[in-house]
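Hello again, I could really use a second opinion on something today. I've been puzzling over a protein and I'd love to understand its fold better. I'm sending you its amino acid sequence along with the backbone structure tokens. It would help a lot if you went through both lines with me. I've dropped the whole record in just underneath, so have a look.
***
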Amino acid sequence: MTKTSENPATQRTLSCARCGTAFTCDLSGHCWCMDETAKLPLPAEGEDCLCQDCLRAAAERRAAT
């Protein structure tokens, strides 16, 4: 994860650990990933949060194995 900005009261802006896409995480208690059906043991070693597309792709690859 690369933190691109941080406001502890509301949200933090992150860069996806795999593709670099910027996205936000709501620190007030709800993040988009909480609504995802894809659940993986994250972060993987050396990684932090993934963007929605990379999370879904990783879940698809894992399901295929």
